[in-house]
Amino acid sequence: MDTTMGSPASLINATTSASIRQDDLSDLSQRIDINNISRPPIGSSPHSRSDAQPRQNCSPYPSDRFQTLNKIRDALDDGEVGAVPPSPVVSFGTQQEIRPNLFRALSRDDHMAQSLSSSFSGLTEPTEASSRSALSSQATTPSGMDTGKIQHAPQARQKSVAKAYCRSYEILNFVVQPKSSIPSDVPTHQYATECLEAAESSRLNPYALHPEEYHLLRHHISHAQVTTYLNIRNSILRLWLQNPRLCVTRKIAIGCANSRWFDAASVCYDWLVRGGYINYGCVQLQDKPAVESSPANGGRRRTVVVVGAGISGLSCARQLQGLFAQYADRFTEMGESVPKVVIVEGRSRVGGRVYSREFKTKLNGRNPDFKDKRRTAEMGGMIITGFERGNPINILVRGQLGLQYHALTPETTIYDSSGKPVNPTRDVLVENLYNDCLDRVSEYKYKMQPLKSILGNRDLLDEGRDSPRDGSKTIMEAEEATAALPHSLPVSEQSVPEKVNLVPVSADKLTGRVHNQPGIPASAKVAEKVAAMGWTLRSQPEPDFELKLEDAVASGDATLGSVMDHAVARYKDLIDLNAQDCRLFNWHIANLEYSNAASLHRLSLSLWDIDAGNEWEGSHTMVVGGYQGVARGLLQCPTPLDLITKFAVKTIRYHSSSSDGPASIESEDGTVVTADNVVCTVPLGVLKQGDIKFDPALPQWKTGAIERLGFGVLNKVVLVYKEIFWDSNRHIFGVLRNPPNKNSTRQEDYSLNRGRFFQWFNVTNTTGLPCLIGLMAGEAGFDTERSTNESLVEEATQVLRSVFGRKVPYPVESVITRWGSDRFARGSYSSAAPEMLPEDYDLMAQPIGNLSFAGEHTTGTHPATVHGAYLSGLRAASEVLEGILGPIEVPTPLILPKDSVLLHKRKETAKNPIQARREAYELEIADHIRDTIGERPLRPNKVTATGYLLFSKQNFENARKKCEAGRKNGKPRTTPNDVRVMTSKMWKEATPEERQPYEEDALAQRAAYNKAMVVFNEESRVWDEKAVRLRARYEAEHGGSVGGHERERERGEGIWGWEEREGGSKLRRGKQVSYAGTA
């Protein structure tokens, strides 16, 4: 609705429903054809165009390819339509159209994928640290919850130990050419680099087992075999990233291994599929089975109900549908049909807190790029914080849905409350002081315990080569043997890297998130550090001036806000901070409150930055036309999900003691949906409010975590104008806000106002209309819930006029969010409340019987984010599948013995029958000896340790990070050789005292090796003597096994055999079969 200048325009509450026309759904009959469309590499970074226009070439598909989903208005806005109507299957094209010449011959009839060459951007190795975050909201604090006693979750449903089963050595279940999925036309070094980067782009360390992989494989592979396994795993990930619109099949994955490792590759494939590392999102499944609408032959058909159609709910439902289809044969074996997945949603739209509201204002003729497109603004989730280093949103937005996006630039102009730009030099001074304050406060951060890290051979992995050795002890056996030695670490503490302190160094102006780097907090004296920044110290500070943060921490109710306030007061004793300095300092605090959706006084001092170290890389971006396009894509592609809207849940009944029991979901109008499994993805604010009843009631360990975690409020004021009056080349600008007493320098006076319209986003390029979004963070976010639309628009207009002049008009349209008052949200996102415990995010994720949980509040590594919500849905889907099918089954032995494979090959080829029988006989003897006295003792690994090698190994990660820190934009990814050069330099620069421990350790290792060799020689001698006696006894008892004249020839010729050749016989060396294995 247009209005004249001088009065507020239409004021719309974002939670108010708007009607939807039925004809908006009319174009659903169109098919989406995205075949044979070129796209940029998934790992490439977006770059902002100089004209600040939306990037037309960012999308892998033409802009009209997604027009059909743009018509699904019921999946976008609150409205009259209750459910998404049936629509035809969205076609991603045939297998041949998407991957031309993809399949090569497997054997005679099977096919194997040829992996295509790829291009990845430079990525850094993921950190091992796992993290979390939390907070408390007045608007969403539940009543009646007992906080006095903390009860911990039982050891229920941790990742199950894999089942083991035996299979005959003589049967290979997969007719696949060994390593047929590895391209022959790609240089080995390039292929190895692509595999490593594929792992990094999948949130996995390419050089180490994931903790779940460790628990899955520790009984089955040795340390030496880890390298080969990682090569297989990374190769499968590379295949997936080549074309994430098409799933990787088991046969294609197994083609990354040689024949001995087929079973291991199959297990790895199961782990990657179940864990949501491959074949997730809007992916077209190959050989998809027909899903019957009713159970076959009277068999059972399970139902899984997902409560909530936000990003986590849609992620879980889409993943479940894909998993059930990929494991359809397992359900057939169980006599069941593929389970049904149903989503129930209280709203009449999908997306939850990702809500792209369409404007009523059209302004015809403006911005032709948006012709026939929706013009929306983000009410909730808005920014994609980088596509690189494993963000799953990368696969969805760029690899599958082809959504257009626009890269944001962080350059910011900050205007004082008077409207004048702040002096850049002064701004840098205050920002450095703020960062130093966070650095010193981080000394009290909770230090996460590093996870066990079983590493492969980095050099071999860099070169794409498998380990030449197998080893004789499994990881478990080696760890237990080490733990049995005197003064050794227990198994749980072996292979655990040292804790790495992450200290804040800067802040992201686009998101308010803190950037961290490894280091030691508060390493420099306060006065020296402040003076080095450029501040002028007061006359003569104390010789050992300190901030004395321990005084503030000692108080029983210390929070991040209270300790920061204390620090600012102490800084004032050291330097002169005027009123503008205080406004600037509090602008940065408001930015931090924006990232946490809460005031600093509601943040835990030790856990406020618990997710540090898990950030993505690459430019921040926004989706053109609305982030909600991701939710719509998950709902519709490749086939529509079963969705029931306007289903406000009243009660969830579940089976608390078993993953297989009856469950039901009852709505407020009395409708009941029965289920076998339930996944609850409702926001933490709704759980805190107690709007949904659980039967039986949730246990104390779960309700305690719900209560202790925080859930804050961030609100927005969205303003649409006829013309742009701001700097169109900047995406953000800041405004300093005065305290009630504008000349005050008291820190506590700034908390109420600092977050009011402190930052503005220019979203013209993604909305298609001249549009600004003002943020209301911290206490201002809660105050928005109580303020009128008119007063907020008037205040926003006055703020803008103070910067851009009195001619700034009132907006032609405005939208104001009130997420705290939204009954289906009760807030914006989770945060670390002062009472939070380090394990609370894990407790929130823990399932109870057949009730699972998902949502951004259930992921400790990525809380309060859209990608975190998505990842939680993948995790919940994996839990549901495991509850139905059980854990991954691991064959025993997992890697076939070499002699077994040789025997299998001998049976497949025509050979001299005498030689074949002799070798089979030797194998029988070898098996008998092993069964009687075990394997031959393993020779100790040769020690080549020097002081430098030990120093290099321990400091490799630090050297790599130094190389990365010095890597300029555009420079290729740091290579292992670069890191070796850096470690050599560090060794040369080390003092004799620093070198001495490594040199002493090297001497000790060599002495231990010599001692171990003495023991090995004696044990081997005893074993060999026993083996000779056992062989003689076996031959005496089974002498007829080889045959009369053959045995006589064997005695006469020893180890020589005859090979029949045309024109006579030729004496040749027979292959000796060793029962000593690979020792």
TrEMBL record:
Please give the organism: Claviceps purpurea (strain 20.1) (Ergot fungus)
The answer to keyword Transport applying to this record is no
Q: Does the keyword Transferase apply?
A: no
Give any GO molecular function from the UniProt entry: oxidoreductase activity
Homology family: Belongs to the flavin monoamine oxidase family.
Q: Where is the composition biased (Polar residues)?
A: 45-65, 116-144
Q: What is the lineage of its organism?
A: Eukaryota, Fungi, Dikarya, Ascomycota, Pezizomycotina
User: What keywords tag this UniProt record?
Assistant: DNA-binding, Nucleus, Oxidoreductase
Q: Which domain of life is it from?
A: Eukaryota
Q: Write down the DNA-binding region ranges.
A: 941-1017
Any one biological process term the GO annotation gives: chromatin remodeling
**Every SWIRM domain range:** 195-289
CDD domains xref list:
HMG-box_SF
Q: What is this protein called?
A: VPS33-vacuolar sorting protein
The HMG box domain covers: 941-1017
Q: Where is this region: Disordered?
A: 35-65, 116-155, 1059-1079
For this protein, the record's Pfam families field holds: Amino_oxidase, HMG_box, SWIRM
List, alphabetically, the GO terms of the cellular component aspect.
nucleus
Q: Output the InterPro entries linked to this UniProt entry.
A: Amino_oxidase, FAD/NAD-bd_sf, Flavin_monoamine_oxidase, HMG_box_dom, HMG_box_dom_sf, Homeodomain-like_sf, SWIRM, WH-like_DNA-bd_sf
